[in-house]
Amino acid sequence: MDSAEIQKYVIWGVAGLFGFALYSEVAYKRQGSAPRTFTEGQDVDVAITLVTTDAKALACSHAEEINGRHCEYASRTDRWSKPPAPGRTAAADTLAPYKTTDDILLLIPALFGEPALRERLAIDPPNFNAEHIRFVANCKLHVEGKLNEVDVRWTTNGQWQTQNSAWYGPVTGCWLSDG
Length: 179
Prior knowledge:
Elements: H1 3-27, E1 43-50, H2 54-57, E2 59-61, E3 70-71, H3 90-93, E4 94-100, E5 105-109, H4 115-123, E6 135-142, E7 145-153, E8 161-168, E9 171-178
Parallel strand pairs: 3-4, 5-8
Antiparallel strand pairs: 1-4, 1-6, 2-7, 4-5, 6-9, 7-8
């Protein structure tokens, strides 16, 4: 075989591999999964990504009370000043922002009051001067409703960011797994 024939086979081989790669990319392309949606009144499993400092660092701002619940701040500068709903603690009424492992924004009251999370805080206190391992809280969320727009901040003195579409409600039955 001379070099011209070898070159021809190499070109055909490369072209064949390119064609197979292109066909694989087009023919086997999977549709991306649709984003999860929730319905008011629904109980749904959620996996929330956390570090223990989230117990102190996260906050939201929204001027309205919703189903007896509210953000820590009524505006970006003013804390909520109304007393808690009768029979509930301030923590049970105060929403805080969290993200699920599939990047859905949730507003949850008293997440770190759940037994599994209280235990986690006992072994890994939310000290801002220490490094913390990320973990996942797997909980049942009772969807009470949705805010179309809310301001959130992810660190104690962080910048406020306007977020769209935040579902809110309490969680129960949390158990922890590695993040």
